[in-house]
Design goal:
This protein has 356 residues and is an alpha/beta fold. The protein contains 10 helices and 14 strands. The longest helix is centred in the first third of the chain and has 23 residues. 45% of the residues are buried.
């Protein structure tokens, strides 16, 4: 039989053990998975000052090992999705990446995902994920302008910041994010603006979502476009995306580019129009013929700034075209591909461009 004094100490021991276990649980680091796709951030050059390099040469485990400070902020693991330069990014890898993101984020113990990616098409991949990720948990892309072997390589700190943001509960509900050069961009807005400058990424008139300094975030805004968990786009069971081509408008533009794209199987076209989304009169006539054949056409602008509104440069209602709103040609192509999985009705697709 246990004495009162013995019972007291037994209960105290149980409470102490419970408190210790609670403290351990509270001190548990957030779990972040890094998905690697290649790019300059995983590039390797012959020397620290070489301008040429091989993209995607460094595996994800080596990228993680190069930033030992990651263990201080998160429980980090990595998976290799692809090992390509982002100029070779394609629909197949997009679908593979997005499906894996959704699988991982469905696990209750995962706090967020960081994705290493080349900068050339990062604006397209981040926007694609912004439309098809099914979770409000943080998904953060990062990359670099210098390969991992370069003098003053920018990749390690970018990876550190990406993991810190992915582990940050205040990053939830902001859509897919991109962090480079201490800035935090929305996947909806980010564009690449320079061929080699480390500060190549910009968000134009929309502005930054926030900033990060050695893993400490300051937030400026929450993107208002529909994204991630609130998006109606889903890719479960999708094995391919419709072909959508971008046609670059210019002086003396020939309509042959439009007719050729349609003849080669384009289901949608995005016109990177001059100014406010315009093009030559013969090209407009070619668009009318394409639309009559069931091809959906979106008017965007090659200027990479401003908003393409309906019925200003051209009469969209009369022609049957879709106005891209603030989306540039590259992002317009992404949204049109997903929209075509649902409908070919130009009015319905205009609704997507208005909301997303």
């Amino acid at each position: 039989m246990t004495s009162r004094k013995g019972l007291f100490w037994l209960l105290m021991g149980v409470l102490t053990l419970a408190n210790c276990q609670t403290g351990a649980a509270q001190g548990k680091k957030p779990k972040v998975v890094i998905l690697a796709t290649g790019g300059t951030i995983a590039g390797s050059a012959a020397s620290g000052t070489s301008a040429g390099y091989q993209s995607g040469a460094v595996a994800v485990d080596a990228l993680i090992a190069a930033v030992p400070q990651l263990k201080d902020i998160a429980d980090v693991s990595g998976e290799q999705i692809a090992s390509i330069g982002s100029q070779d990014m394609n629909d197949e890898v997009w679908l593979k990446l997005a499906k894996r993101v959704n699988e991982i984020l469905a696990k209750p113990d995962v706090s967020g995902i960081a994705i290493t990616h080349g900068t050339d098409t990062m604006e397209e991949t981040s926007y694609f994920l912004n439309l098809v990720v099914n979770s409000a948990k943080p998904v953060v892309l990062t990359g670099s302008m210098r390969p991992s072997t370069a003098m003053s390589a920018d990749g390690p700190l970018n990876i550190y910041n990406a993991v810190a943001i992915a582990a940050d509960p205040t990053a939830k509900g902001r859509g897919v994010l991109v962090t480079v050069d201490d800035d935090i961009h929305s996947g909806h807005d980010i564009v690449k603006t320079h061929t080699t400058d480390v500060g190549t990424m910009a968000s134009g008139e929309a502005g930054l979502v926030g900033a990060t300094l050695f893993g400490k975030q300051s937030w400026y805004r929450v993107p208002t476009c529909v994204n991630t968990a609130k998006s109606e786009f889903r890719i479960e069971g999708v094995t391919a995306l419709p072909r959508v081509d971008i046609i670059y408008a210019h002086a003396n533009m020939s309509p042959d580019m439009i007719t050729s794209a349609v003849e080669h199987g384009a289901k949608g076209l995005v016109i990177a129009g001059v100014g406010d989304g315009n093009m030559t009169a013969p090209s407009v006539d070619a668009l009318k013929e394409a639309i009559a054949k069931g091809v959906v056409v979106v008017r965007s602008s090659r200027t990479n700034g401003g908003i393409i509104r309906r019925n200003i440069e051209l009469n969209d209602d009369q022609i049957g075209t879709v106005a891209s709103m603030e989306l540039n040609p590259a992002k317009s192509r992404v949204l049109l591909q997903l929209a075509l999985l649902k409908t070919k009705d130009a009015k319905a697709i205009q609704g997507y461009f208005d909301r997303y």
